[in-house]
Inverse folding.
């Protein structure tokens, strides 16, 4: 299996910033240390080009990011200070998702140890998301006529408003988001299937709802699944509002990967959110996602 990583593209954040930039390096190191992946299974992706970004984003917004001409309000909405490093990191994140998508079509499963930037709109970024990697990759595959139908399974604790804004009107795309009802974003954009969870939802109810929803995704007949595997559903997560255990996150992943495997649908995984402090539960959950992927897909 080939997995793409982007953690050499880090950005400096103000002291006290709550985004865990070190997470991406720690996940890669954890995967290697625990023997889930070996070095030859990891690769750095090419940076996404301006042209490919324009599949999902307006030229004004893309150029404002690339050239550093975002307004102060646009920068605040993203949540990161603009820098050349931010541009490179954002291009790498999209490039990793693109590479994972094409690799999944070749081998059945792949992933990017970044991305899942589902809050980015066509003309604006927000919520730590600059460009929408899954939307760009979806539109590239559809434009190339490599696939006819795409499904997004978004199990981050936050609703994928950017995914639904960019892709929601397309009949070739099924977007499933299961998220905390009262959490960010506070103005949600309807997906094909949204399941909103009350605060403090626990394992059993969460997994029951997921089991009911997955058949609807696969009844759509997707040719590929993008799995936004955010682990901010953990009860320890600072931004989560749910009460999901590490064991239930592993079972969630097993259910998604087993459904993909049993239906013969390739899956491309993006990392999504995770904001525990201390960060150890977040890293364990992300590493567990790839452990489960390799187990289910017999890779």
């Amino acid at each position: 299996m080939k997995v793409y990583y982007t953690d050499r593209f880090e950005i400096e954040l103000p002291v006290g910033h709550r985004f865990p930039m070190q997470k991406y390096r720690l996940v890669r190191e954890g995967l290697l240390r625990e023997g889930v992946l070996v070095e030859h299974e990891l690769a750095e992706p090419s940076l996404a080009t301006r042209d490919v970004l324009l599949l999902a984003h307006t030229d004004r917004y893309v150029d404002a990011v690339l050239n550093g001409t975002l307004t102060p309000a646009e920068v605040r909405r993203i949540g990161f200070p603009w820098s050349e490093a931010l541009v490179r990191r954002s291009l790498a994140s999209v490039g990793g998702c693109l590479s994972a998508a094409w690799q999944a079509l070749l081998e059945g499963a792949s992933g990017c140890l970044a991305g899942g930037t589902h809050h980015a709109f066509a003309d604006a970024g927000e919520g730590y998301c600059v460009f929408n990697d899954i939307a760009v990759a979806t539109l590239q595959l559809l434009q190339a006529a490599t696939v006819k139908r795409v499904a997004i399974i978004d199990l981050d604790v936050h609703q994928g408003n950017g995914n639904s804004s960019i892709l929601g009107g397309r009949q070739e795309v099924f977007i499933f988001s299961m998220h905390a009802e009262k959490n960010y974003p506070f103005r949600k954009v309807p997906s094909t299937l949204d399941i909103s969870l009350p605060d403090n939802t626990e394992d059993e109810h969460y997994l029951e709802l997921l089991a009911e929803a997955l058949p609807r995704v696969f009844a759509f007949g997707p040719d590929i699944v993008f799995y936004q595997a955010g682990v901010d559903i953990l009860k320890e997560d600072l931004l989560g509002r749910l009460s999901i255990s590490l064991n239930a996150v592993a079972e969630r992943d097993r259910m998604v990967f087993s459904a993909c495997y049993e239906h013969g649908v390739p899956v491309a995984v993006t990392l999504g959110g995770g904001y525990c402090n201390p960060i150890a539960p977040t890293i364990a959950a992300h590493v567990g996602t790839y452990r489960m992927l390799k187990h289910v897909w017999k890779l």
